[in-house]
């Protein structure tokens, strides 16, 4: 799967100028063996499968998470319809990622500001990492938090829901100037969850 991340060179260093829209698939293009992509995990139609370019959603996850911490605006974002694995090793809130599937399930990010932003992505020994840079100091910081998380059972199936909220903080005063609900997740869980409360 690491070899698939090498294709992040299509995105590494890209600049989103004022008024421009970043499109994941416009930059990456179709993932094929001829381009050097390998087999990896894919989530599709409620199932875990393997396919060429599998795992590339993790790059989309990173880009989406970084964009939430900037004044950039996510204009297209999709999420997986189910939760395939338990939270072992999870560092970000459930449902805070982005699903991409060539070429109609895209991640698009627009720049409504008067500043340019550069995306950098790179690999450590074990992790895909990234950052978004600007030549100008931004007046606000952004904090993401999960609320109202729970597991539940409906019609004999297990589900998970939560909310992802963003707080905008004035860096000069430290005061919160805005609070917004970004995402409401409700997804089927594909692994056993003990002691669920039924809401049937």
Give a structural overview:
- With 200 residues, the chain is mainly beta.
- It has a domain at 2-135.
- 10% of the residues lie in helices and 41% in strands.
- The strands form 4 sheets. Strands 6-12-11-10 form a 4-stranded mixed sheet, with no helix packed on it. A 3-stranded antiparallel sheet has the order 1-8-9, with helices on one face. Strands 2-7-5 form a 3-stranded antiparallel sheet.
- A hairpin with a 2-residue loop joins strand 10 and strand 11.
- The chain is globular.
- It starts with a helix and ends in an 11-residue tail after the last strand.
- Global outline: globular
Structural class, judged by helices and strands? mainly beta
The largest sheet is: 4 strands, mixed
Helix proportion range: 10-25%
Q: Using the CA coordinates, give the radius of gyration.
A: 18 Å
Run of helices and strands: HEEHEEHEEEEEEEE
Q: Can you give the mean pLDDT? A: 83
Record field, number of beta strands: 12
Strand arrangement across the biggest beta sheet: 6-12-11-10
Instruction: Work out the helix count.
Output: 3
Classify the beta-strand content into a percent band: 35-45%
What is the terminal separation in angstroms?
Answer: 40 Å
Query: Low-confidence parts, pLDDT < 50 over ≥5 residues?
Result: 1-7
Detail the topology: elements first, then pairings:
Elements: H1 2-5, E1 15-16, E2 21-23, H2 24-28, E3 39-44, E4 47-52, H3 57-67, E5 73-76, E6 82-83, E7 108-110, E8 117-123, E9 128-133, E10 140-154, E11 157-170, E12 176-189
Parallel strand pairs: 6-12
Antiparallel strand pairs: 1-8, 2-7, 3-4, 5-7, 8-9, 10-11, 11-12
């Amino acid at each position: 799967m690491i070899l698939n991340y090498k294709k992040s060179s299509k995105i590494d260093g890209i600049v989103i100028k004022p008024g421009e829209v970043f499109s994941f698939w416009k930059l990456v293009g179709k993932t094929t063996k001829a381009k050097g992509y390998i087999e990896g995990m894919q989530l599709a139609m409620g199932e875990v499968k393997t396919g060429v370019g599998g795992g590339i959603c993790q790059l989309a996850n990173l880009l989406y998470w970084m964009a939430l911490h900037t004044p950039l605006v996510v204009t297209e974002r999709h999420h997986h319809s189910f939760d395939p694995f338990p939270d072992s090793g999870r560092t970000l809130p459930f449902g805070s990622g982005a699903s991409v599937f060539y070429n109609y399930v895209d991640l698009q990010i627009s720049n409504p500001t008067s500043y340019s932003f550069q995306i950098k992505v790179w690999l450590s020994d074990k992790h895909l990492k990234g950052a978004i840079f600007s030549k100008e100091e931004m007046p606000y910081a952004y904090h993401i938090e999960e609320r109202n998380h729970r597991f539940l059972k409906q019609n004999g199936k297990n589900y998970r829901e939560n909310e992802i909220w963003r707080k905008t903080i004035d860096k000069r005063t430290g005061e919160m100037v805005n609070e917004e609900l970004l995402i409401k997740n409700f997804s089927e869980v594909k692994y056993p969850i003990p002691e669920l409360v039924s809401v049937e």
